[in-house]
């Protein structure tokens, strides 16, 4: 008996693909975080009063990256060439570009433009994934909320400095 195209993938391949998504997103995210540690420059910036303590960012991003990875895997599993999947890759690229622009290059204005594009792309992902993969879309809601908050922080830093 030969497998049919519409049969779900075997559990072991599902597990490997999901693990790969999580490792890819977390690994790149953690590497960029390690390579672009905020440092003295960031500590000296004037920041908005709603800036959370620095220790909040690492756990928040770790949780969000896991959600983003699972959401990407769900969409990839359904259709690897879909619009939501393309938006998923674009938002990952924008996400991974932000830290070097903000923390390494100290370009807070350009970083603000990038994070706003990131937010728009996340919202577009949610809107396009909603119809076919509501779970993937829902997994992106906390990410959208955090990036909206991070956009406000970035804007505040840009305006105060």
What does this structure look like?
By secondary structure, the chain is mainly alpha-helical. It has one domain (17-35, 54-160). 76% of the residues lie in helices and 0% in strands. Helix 1 packs antiparallel against helix 3 (57-78), helix 1 packs parallel to helix 4 (83-104) and helix 4 (83-104) runs antiparallel to helix 5. It is built from seven helices and no strands. The mean pLDDT is 91. The longest helix has 25 residues, at 11-35.
Principal-axis shape equals globular
| Largest sheet geometry | none
Spell out the helices and strands N to C.
Answer: HHHHHHH
Structural class: mainly alpha
Ranges where pLDDT stays below 50 over 5 or more residues in a row are none
Approximately how much beta-strand content do the residues carry? Answer: under 5%
Quickly describe the structure.
With 161 residues, this protein is mainly α. It has helices at 11-35, 39-44, 57-78, 83-104, 108-129, 134-139, 141-160. 27% of the residues are buried.
What are the SSEs and their pairings?
Layout: H1 11-35, H2 39-44, H3 57-78, H4 83-104, H5 108-129, H6 134-139, H7 141-160
Task: List key phrases describing it.
161 residues; globular; mainly alpha; transmembrane; kinase activity
């Amino acid at each position: 008996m030969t497998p049919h195209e519409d049969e779900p993938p075997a559990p072991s391949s599902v597990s490997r693909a999901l693990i790969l998504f999580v490792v890819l997103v977390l690994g790149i995210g953690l590497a960029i975080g390690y390579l672009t540690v905020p440092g003295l420059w960031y500590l000296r910036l004037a920041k908005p009063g709603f800036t959370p303590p620095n220790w909040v960012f690492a756990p928040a991003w770790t949780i969000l990256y896991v959600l983003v990875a699972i959401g990407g895997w769900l969409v990839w599993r359904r259709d690897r060439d879909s619009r939501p999947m393309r938006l998923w890759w674009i938002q990952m690229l924008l996400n991974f570009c932000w830290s070097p622009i903000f923390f390494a290059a100290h370009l807070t204005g350009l970083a603000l433009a990038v994070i706003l594009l990131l937010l728009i792309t996340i919202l577009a992902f949610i809107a396009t994934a909603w119809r076919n993969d509501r779970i993937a879309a829902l997994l992106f809601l906390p990410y959208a909320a955090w990036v909206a908050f991070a956009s406000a922080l970035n804007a505040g830093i840009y305006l105060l400095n």
